[in-house]
C-alpha cells in the first residue's frame, strides 16, 4: 500500500481549544492529510494517515505553516517532488521499500530551499530505499538566513546528485553529519557542497562507506566549505573528472581507507585526479593502509604546466597541508603533484607510483611552481616505496624547496631517483635542503640516484648523508652534481654510493667557499662505500669544486678521479683500512698541515697518475707532499709533470716532484707534452735525468706535414702536367690513344665561355699546339703529427696549367695555391702554399716495333706560410714561420702499344730541397712552453729519391677509356737533422722520414671531341706515417 505521512506539530503558545485548532486536510490526489495537536503539549504528537485508495498516487507534499516540525515519510513509490520552502524543522525519510521519483529522472526530486532571512532545518534526511533524481538543499535568490542539515544518511540507492550549498547571497549552510553506506550515482557531480567566498558552508562530518560515483564530473566536490572530517571507507569514483575535488576550502582531517579513483582514457582530459585540492588548507591528510588513491587517466605531464593537469593520485595546487601521511597506495601518471603548495610534514609508509613514460619531464612525486609561487616541503620522510619504472621518482622544478628529506624506504626510477628541471617561470634556485639516506634506505635509478642538475637558476642544498646500510645506486652515478649547482655542505657516506660511470660525479660545487676551516667535502665512514662499475667512485670533472677534503675512514676501497679543470681544496686523507686510488689531472690543494695526501690508517694510497702543475710566475713545480704515519703504504704508478712554464733546470731530484714516498714505491715519471721531453727516474739515487726527442716536437710535426703535402703535390702535378703534355707527343697516334694518354691526371676544371663555345661547336683539326686547364681540387689526408697518433686533415687548392708544342719538345708551366689544415692532440699544422713550376717533355726515339721512348723533366718552387700550434692540456703556443720548397726531377719512360692497350713503365730521379725559418713558440692561451721559452732553429732539407711506375691504358670504346697507374717512390736519404732549445737547454737530434711511398691513380675517361675530354679520377698515396686520398673531375681544352 502506498503510504506517505506528514505530521505538523505546533510549538507551544499556551493552551489552545480544539475548536480553534487549525485543521488542515490536503487532498493529494486521494492522499489524506490531518494535522492535529494536543492542548499546550510540549512533545509532538504524530498521527499517520494511510492512503484511502491503493490505486491513487500522491502528487506532492508541501507544508507552509511556520514553526512546525514536518515529518515526511515515503514507504512506497512516489514520483512527485517533495518541496520544502518554509523555515520549520523537517525530517524526510525514504523507507526501505520506498521509491521517490521515476527511473531516469534528472530533475530535483527533493527540493528544500530557504528564502529571505528564514531558518531551514533538516533534522534528518534519510534514504533507505531509492531516490531517482537530484536532492537539492539550497536557497532562493537574496538569501541571508540559515540552512542546517543535522543528519543526512543514505543506506539505499540515490540515482542523482546530492547538492547542499549556498550559491549566492549572505546566508549560511551547516551540515552536521553526512553518512553514505549505500550508493550515490550521478551523471553530474555525485555529491556537491558549496559555500560563498565570504560565507563558507560548514561540514562537520562527511563519512562514506558505500559507493559515490559520477560518469561525467566530480564524484564529490567541496567549494568554499569548512570541513572538520572527511572519511572514506568505501568507493568514490569518477569516470570523467576528479574523484574528490576540494576548492577554496579548509579540512581538518581527510582520512581514506577505501578507494578513490578516476578513470578516463581521453588523453586530452585534464581532470583525471583521484583527489584534487586547490587553494585550500588541510590540517591532516591520511591515506590509510588499505586506502587506494588512483588517477587512471592518460594525460602525461608536459610543457610549461608540468604535472598540473596530469592524471594523478593526488593533485595539490596553491594549498597548505600540515600533515600528509600515506600508508596505502597512491598512483597515476604522476603519483602526487605538488604545485605552489606548502607541506609541513610529508610521510610515506605505503606506495606512491608514477606510470608516465616521459623520461625528463616526469615524476612520481612532482614538485613545481605555478607561476612564480613556490612549493615547499619542510619534512619529507619515506619509509615505503616511491617508484617510476620509466621516468623520475621525485621531480623538483625551479624555485621549490625540500628542507629535509629522509629515506629509509625504497625509491626506484627508470631515469633519476631525485631530479630537477627549469620551467623558467619561477626564476629562483631549487633548494634540496638536507638529504639523508637512513639504514635500509635505497635510491636505485637507471641514470642517477640523485641528479642535481637541470635548473637554469641554480640548485642549492645543505648536504647529503648516506648512513650505514643506506644505498644510492645509479646506472650513471649515485650522485651527479651539474655545472653551476651547489651542495653547500659536506657529503657524508657510511653506506654505499655506486654508479656505472662514477659513484659521485661532480661538475658543480660541494661545500662552501670562504669557510674559516675547510674540513670535510666528502667523508666516508664505518663501512661506507663509493664505487663504480666502470668508472671512478668519485669523479670530480669539468669545473667541479669540492671545498674541504676527501676523508676516508672506511675499510673499503675508493677510486677518485679529479679532472683537468676540477678542484679539491683541502687534500685527501685516508684513516681506514681500505685503499684510495687517485688520478689527479686538475688541482688538489694542500690541507691545513701542508699535505696533499695523508695516509694514517692501516690502508694504503695508490697514485695512478698525478699531474704536477707549475707556478705561473716562477715555473717551480707544485711538489706533491705526502704525510701521515703510514707513508710506506703510499705507492706511485705514474706522475706527469706539466710542461707548461716548467723550469727544467729545477727538475733534478725526485723530491722536486713528490716528497714523503719511499723511492722504491715510485714508478714512471713523464710529461704531458707530445713526447719531446722525457724524464728518467733513477730510484737508487733519486735523481731525474732529461732526454729530448725532436721527432716528437713541433719541428718533427712540421717536417712530417711539409714532406707529406709536398710529395702529394709533386705526384699530383706530375700526373696533370705530364699527361697533358703527352697529348702533343702522341698527335701522330690514333685519336683515341692521343686522348687517352692525356688523361692520367685527375682534377676538376672550369672552362671559360670561350672554351665552352669550342665544346659546343667542336674542332676536329688534328694539329693541336696549345693545352690549357684550370682546376680547383680538394684532398683528404692522414698524417702522423703527434707520434703514434694518426691526424686527419684536408687540403683545398687551385692549379692553372698551360702547355705548348715546339719543334724541340713540349714546354709547360703551372702555378697554384692550396690551403692545408691538419690537427692532432698536441699539434695543429695549418699552412697556405703558393707554388709554380716548369715542365718539359719530348719523345727521344721510336723503336722498330713502334715503342716510344720519352723523357720529361720538371723544376718547381713553393712558398709555404705556416701557422703552427702546440697544445699542452688547455694551453696553447703559436708560431708562424715561412718554409721554402724547391726541387727538380727527371723521368724516362716507354709506351708499349698493343691493339687497344698501352703499357707504360717509367723510372725517375728527384731532388727535394727545403728551408724553414727559425721560430720561437709564443704562449697565446695559458702557458704551453717551458720556462725560458722554446725555439726551433732554421732547418734545411736535401732529399733525393727515385721513382718507378707502371701505367696501363685501355681503349674500350670510342667514348670510354680507362687508365690505371701503380708506382713507388724510394727516399735515398730520409734522415732529417734538427736543432732546438728548451729553456736553457740546447738540443740536437735526428729522425727519419718514411723511406718508401706508394701511389695509385685511376681514371675513367669520356672523350667529347678533339678539343675537349672529360675524366673522373682518383689518386692515393701511402706511407708508414699516413695516407692521402684525392678525387678529381677534369676538363682539358686543346687548340
TrEMBL record:
| Iron-sulfur recorded as keyword | no
The membrane spanning regions, by residue number, are none
Q: Which residues form a coiled coil?
A: none
Q: Which segment of the chain is annotated as a signal peptide?
A: 1-40
This chain's protein is named Autotransporter domain-containing protein
Domain Autotransporter per the UniProt entry, residue ranges: 765-1039
- PROSITE patterns documented for this protein: AUTOTRANSPORTER (PS51208)
Keywords recorded for this protein, A-Z: Signal
Highest taxon of the source?
Bacteria
Amino acid at each position: 500500500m502506498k503510504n506517505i505521512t506528514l505530521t505538523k506539530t505546533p510549538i507551544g503558545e499556551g493552551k489552545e481549544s480544539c475548536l480553534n485548532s487549525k485543521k488542515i486536510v490536503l487532498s493529494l490526489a486521494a492522499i489524506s492529510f490531518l494535522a492535529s495537536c494536543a492542548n499546550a503539549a510540549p512533545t509532538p504528537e504524530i498521527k499517520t494517515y494511510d492512503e484511502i485508495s491503493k490505486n491513487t498516487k500522491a502528487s506532492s507534499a508541501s507544508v507552509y505553516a511556520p514553526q512546525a516540525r514536518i515529518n515526511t515519510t515515503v514507504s512506497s513509490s512516489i514520483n512527485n517532488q517533495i518541496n520544502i520552502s518554509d523555515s520549520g524543522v523537517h525530517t524526510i525519510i525514504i523507507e526501505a521499500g520506498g521509491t521517490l521519483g521515476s527511473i531516469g529522472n534528472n530533475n530535483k526530486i527533493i527540493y528544500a530551499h530557504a528564502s529571505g532571512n528564514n531558518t531551514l532545518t533538516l533534522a534528518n534526511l534519510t534514504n533507505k530505499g531509492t531516490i531517482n533524481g537530484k536532492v537539492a538543499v539550497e536557497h532562493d535568490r537574496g538569501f541571508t538566513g540559515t540552512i542546517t542539515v543535522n543528519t543526512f544518511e543514505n543506506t539505499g540507492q540515490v540515482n542523482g546528485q546530492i547538492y547542499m550549498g549556498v550559491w549566492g547571497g549572505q546566508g549560511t549552510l551547516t551540515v552536521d553529519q553526512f553518512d553514505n553506506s549505500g550508493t550515490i550515482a550521478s551523471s553530474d557531480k555525485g555529491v556537491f557542497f558549496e559555500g560563498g567566498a565570504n560565507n563558507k558552508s560548514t561540514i562537520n562530518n562527511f563519512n562514506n562507506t558505500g559507493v559515490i560515483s559520477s560518469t561525467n564530473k566530480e564524484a564529490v566536490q567541496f567549494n568554499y566549505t569548512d570541513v572538520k572530517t572527511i572519511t572514506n571507507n568505501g568507493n568514490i569514483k569518477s569516470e570523467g573528472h576528479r574523484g574528490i575535488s576540494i576548492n577554496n576550502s579548509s579540512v581538518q582531517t581527510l582520512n581514506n581507507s577505501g578507494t578513490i579513483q578516476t578513470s578516463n582514457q581521453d588523453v586530452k582530459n585534464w581532470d583525471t585526479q583521484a583527489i584534487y585540492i586547490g587553494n585550500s588548507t588541510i590540517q591532516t591528510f591520511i591515506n590509510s593502509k588499505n586506502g587506494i588513491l588512483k588517477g587512471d587517466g592518460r594525460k602525461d605531464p608536459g610543457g610549461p604546466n608540468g604535472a598540473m593537469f596530469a592524471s594523478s593520485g593526488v593533485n595539490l595546487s596553491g594549498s597548505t597541508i600540515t600533515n600528509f601521511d600515506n600508508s596505502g597506495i597512491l598512483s597515476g601518471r604522476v603519483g602526487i603533484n605538488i604545485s605552489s603548495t606548502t607541506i609541513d610534514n610529508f610521510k610515506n609508509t605505503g606506495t606512491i607510483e608514477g606510470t608516465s613514460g616521459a623520461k625528463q619531464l616526469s615524476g612520481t612525486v612532482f614538485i613545481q611552481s605555478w607561476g612564480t609561487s613556490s612549493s615547499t616541503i619542510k619534512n619529507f620522510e619515506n619509509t615505503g616505496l616511491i617508484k617510476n619504472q620509466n621516468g623520475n621518482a621525485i621531480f623538483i622544478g625551479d624555485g621549490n624547496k625540500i628542507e629535509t628529506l629522509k629515506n629509509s624506504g625504497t625509491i626506484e626510477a627508470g631515469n633519476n631517483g631525485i631530479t630537477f628541471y627549469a620551467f623558467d617561470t619561477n626564476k629562483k634556485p631549487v633548494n634540496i635542503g638536507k638529504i639523508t639516506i637512513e639504514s635500509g634506505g635505497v635510491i636505485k635509478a637507471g641514470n642517477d640516484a640523485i641528479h642535481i642538475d637541470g635548473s637554469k637558476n641554480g640548485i642549492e642544498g645543505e648536504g647529503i648523508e648516506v648512513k650505514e646500510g643506506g644505498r644510492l645506486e645509479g646506472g650513471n652515478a649515485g650522485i651527479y652534481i651539474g655545472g653551476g649547482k651547489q651542495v653547500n655542505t659536506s657529503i657524508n657516506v657510511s653506506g654505499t654510493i655506486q654508479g656505472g660511470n662514477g659513484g659521485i660525479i661532480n661538475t658543480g660545487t660541494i661545500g662552501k667557499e670562504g669557510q674559516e676551516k675547510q674540513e670535510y667535502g666528502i667523508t666516508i665512514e664505518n663501512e661506507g662505500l663509493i664505487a663504480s662499475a666502470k668508472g671512478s667512485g668519485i669523479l670530480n670533472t669539468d669545473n667541479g669544486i669540492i671545498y674541504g677534503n676527501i676523508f676516508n675512514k672506511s675499510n673499503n676501497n675508493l677510486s677518485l678521479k679529479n679532472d683537468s679543470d676540477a678542484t679539491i681544496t683541502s687534500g685527501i686523507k685516508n684513516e681506514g683500512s681500505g685503499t684510495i686510488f687517485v688520478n689527479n689531472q686538475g688541482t688538489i690543494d694542500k690541507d691545513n698541515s701542508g699535505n696533499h695526501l695523508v695516509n694514517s690508517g692501516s690502508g694504503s694510497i695508490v697514485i695512478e697518475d698525478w699531474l704536477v702543475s707549475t707556478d705561473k710566475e716562477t715555473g717551480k713545480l707544485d711538489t706533491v707532499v705526502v704525510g701521515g704515519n703510514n707513508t710506506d703504504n703510499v705507492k706511485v704508478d705514474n706522475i706527469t709533470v706539466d710542461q707548461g712554464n716548467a723550469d727544467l733546470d729545477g727538475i733534478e731530484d725526485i723530491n722536486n716532484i713528490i716528497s714523503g714516498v719511499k723511492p722504491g714505491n715510485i714508478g714512471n715519471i713523464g710529461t704531458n707534452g707530445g713526447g719531446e721531453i722525457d724524464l728518467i727516474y733513477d730510484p737508487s739515487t733519486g735523481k731525474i735525468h732529461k732526454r729530448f726527442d725532436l721527432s716528437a716536437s713541433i719541428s718533427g710535426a712540421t717536417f712530417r706535414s711539409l714532406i707529406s703535402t709536398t710529395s702529394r703535390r709533386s705526384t699530383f702535378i706530375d700526373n696533370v702536367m705530364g699527361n697533358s703534355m703527352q697529348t702533343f707527343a702522341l698527335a701522330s697516334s690514333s685519336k683515341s690513344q692521343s686522348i687517352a694518354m692525356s688523361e692520367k691526371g685527375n682534377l676538376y676544371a672550369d672552362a671559360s665561355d670561350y672554351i665552352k663555345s669550342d665544346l659546343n661547336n667542336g674542332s676536329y683539326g688534328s694539329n693541336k699546339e696549345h693545352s690549357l686547364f684550370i682546376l680547383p681540387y680538394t684532398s683528404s689526408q692522414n698524417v702522423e703529427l703527434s707520434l703514434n697518433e694518426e691526424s686527419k686533415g684536408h687540403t683545398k687548392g687551385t692549379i692553372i696549367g698551360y702547355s705548348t708544342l715546339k719543334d724541340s719538345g713540349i714546354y709547360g708551366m703551372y702555378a697554384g695555391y692550396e690551403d692545408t689544415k691538419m690537427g692532432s692532440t698536441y699539434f695543429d699544422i695549418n699552412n697556405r702554399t703558393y707554388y709554380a713550376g716548369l715542365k718539359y717533355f719530348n719523345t727521344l726515339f721510336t723503336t722498330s716495333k713502334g715503342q716510344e721512348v720519352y723523357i720529361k723533366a720538371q723544376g718547381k718552387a713553393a712558398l709555404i706560410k705556416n701557422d703552427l700550434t702546440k697544445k699542452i692540456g688547455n694551453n696553447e703556443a703559436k708560431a708562424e714561420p715561412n718554409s721554402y720548397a724547391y726541387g727538380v726531377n727527371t723521368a724516362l719512360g716507354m709506351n708499349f702499344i698493343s691493339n687497344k692497350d698501352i703499357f707504360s713503365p717509367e723510372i725517375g730521379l728527384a731532388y727535394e730541397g727545403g728551408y724553414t725559418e727559425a721560430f720561437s713558440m709564443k704562449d697565446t692561451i695559458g702557458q704551453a712552453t717551458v720556462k725560458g721559452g722554446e725555439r726551433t732553429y732554421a732547418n734545411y732539407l736535401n732529399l733525393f729519391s727515385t721513382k718507378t711506375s707502371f701505367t696501363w691504358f685501355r681503349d674500350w670504346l670510342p667514348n670510354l677509356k680507362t687508365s690505371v697507374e701503380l708506382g713507388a717512390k724510394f727516399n735515398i736519404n730520409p734522415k732529417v737533422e734538427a736543432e732546438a732549445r728548451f729553456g736553457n737547454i740546447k738540443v740536437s737530434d735526428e729522425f727519419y722520414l718514411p723511406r718508401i711511398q706508394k701511389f695509385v691513380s685511376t681514371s675513367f675517361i669520356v672523350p667529347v671531341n678533339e678539343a675537349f675530354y672529360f675524366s673522373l679520377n682518383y689518386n692515393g698515396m701511402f706511407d708508414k706515417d699516413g695516407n692521402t686520398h684525392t678525387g678529381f673531375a677534369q676538363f682539358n681544352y686543346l687548340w
